[in-house]
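This entry is retained here.
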Amino acid sequence: MFRLQGRSSSWCLSMDGISEISIRRVWERLDSTSLLHTSDRRPLMVLSPGVPNCDGGPDYTDVLIRLDGRLYRGAVEVHLHARDWVAHHHDKDAHYNGVILHVVGECPSDVRPTHTAGRRVVPVLILPPDGSSTAPSSPPPPPCVRQLGVLPAKSLCRVLQRLGWRRIRRRMNVLEARLDELLREEHLTVHEQRRCYRKVPERERTTAERWTRCELNAQPAWDQMLYEGILEGLGYVKNRKPFGALAQNVPLKLLQQWSLADTETMMAILFGASGLLPSPHGLKEQTSVRYVRRLRHRWKDLRRQIHRPLLHEAEWLFFRLRPVNFPTSRLAAFVFLLPAIFNDSGAHRILEIFRCDGLSPRTRVKRLRDVFAFLPDGFWSRHLHFRNKRTGTPIALGTHRIDAMIMNTLVPMALLYGRLCHDHLLCLHARAVARALPTPPRNSVTRAVELNVLRGCVSIDSALLHLGAIELHRAYCQPGRCVQCPATPGKPARK
């Protein structure tokens, strides 16, 4: 048999040319009218085939099925042969614990039952592959390439800039809502819902009206918001959610019960609460074994004092990530940033960099980058994770990652503070910093926008245009609103 394999969900060819892609096409065409039975002859109805997953983990997420009259929502894994579940080690991978159905092309009677790492048996559905085509066909070109015109270059730049500012304002709204939550927790206040008398709704007060100037300046709330924003930024797109959950499960004020400069204690708490602290058994390098044993011993003592929810290791993604971007290396880097940023009101010190007069935007950007500089200890200067030693690649944050956190967290936070406290000079300087940030590396979204929408008329040469391209793709290209796209002639962007 000839086999071509990539990731567990990638397509593989058998000798007759049938591939996993053909099985997926059959699966995606199923609906509630299809009469199906599992391999053990239980009635099955597919209410929703789910969303294809291009990342690590099962092939489809958010699947809804009815099995034996009961509704199940979860993930689905597709294989050409039922034995591939064990061959790809899914039976030992906690990322596949949420699989509710195993879809295969063939399942001999002597194959072991499909079960997860938690020993739960997964029902198997045998779908005959669609042999009419064995490779994915090229998708049709988007409407903007086929029939829509293009605005002049200057107009396209203005559109992308407006969309970039719109994305920043949306981030400000998210931070404002979180700030309001933190202030309520700090002052232990409860606000009832909006009332309506005589069918005239009562106007809801804004955050600036709800809190006094002194309360809005509260250091713990802004520091916690900065703490959460930096952790989420270290998670990139793949691990943003677990990093955000970790920041709320282990708040800054909990860590401040100990010294933030006590690196081993901070490592033990954050790695223990994140579920990323491995067992020393199976580690080959003696340095890693001794280091992990110290952290686990410290975490065992601290766990009795920390009554907070814990994350599971299955919530973190390592698939298709460079080792320097692994959650372990990013979490270790954050531990070294803790004393440098949060020992003395980190949020207000960062706001002072924005507020300080007489500095050029480039100088402000340099000072903000310097905030994220640190020196790792002996172990993390030679490691990116706990498994083995890796030399030549430090865990220090790259300039592009720091610039992304400045754009997505520090600039919106400064603009929000300036708006709530009527500090117009702060807003002016924060906008200048946003315009001065250099262009981030291109990704699949910006490449698609450049190819299909801009078509060589405009080059994405600043961080603000980069944000605008992402917002254009998210708001118009992805949902298929190409006819309403503001980059189309006669469709001006709304402010």
